[in-house]
Amino acid sequence: MNNIIARTINLEKTYSPGEHNEVKALKGVTTQFSSGEFVAIIGPSGSGKSTFMHLLGALDLPTSGDVEIAGKSLTKLKDNDRADLRAKELGFIFQGYNLLSTLTALENVVLAGDYAGLPAKASLERAKELLKEVGLAERFDHTPAELSGGEQQRVAIARSLMNDGRLILADEPTGELDTKNSEAIVELLRDLVKRKQKTIVMVTHNEALTRFCDRVIKVVDGRLA
Description:
Layout: E1 4-15, E2 23-34, E3 38-42, H1 49-56, E4 64-69, E5 72-73, H2 79-89, E6 90-94, H3 105-115, H4 120-133, H5 149-160, E7 167-171, H6 179-196, E8 199-203, E9 215-220, E10 223-224
Parallel strand pairs: 3-8, 3-9, 6-7, 7-8
Antiparallel strand pairs: 1-2, 1-4, 4-5, 9-10
């Protein structure tokens, strides 16, 4: 059986607890993710998907329960240790690409290497190699404005791989793309999962894309359906 990369244990998240506007976003969510697994998270708006991804990405802490990444309990780590875990074990892909407009594709990816603490030369070489892997060998010197939406997301995927982390969280990575580019991006993610034994957890509103995934988790009203 594959190694468990991440797990959630009776995960609960309540916003404004005890107040009149209290919202229970997650209610006892327990699941796990294995090495080399591509998992889709689906569910209606307001179901708790984004909250789940924030907790899984060590961007927030649960009200109760726990998240374990690479065997480490997030609730037991200090803030700086959680930040270090994010830098070393996690990659993030966003709907809006989140590329710096004044930097080239190569510079955007290299910057992620800097954040991960890679030496400058190693960071540059790795960024070039990753951009080649995602099909952008001829786009090193292009700024985001000179790239299509699909190309910008490929840059973002390369960026998410710079730290060679084991878990990649993709939040609506095809939300701004047409059908053809959406399928191409998800196929690229699936290839990375299998070839590099990454674990990718992808939130998507497009259920047609779940056919590329190994497993689908549906979140409804803060619970796994």
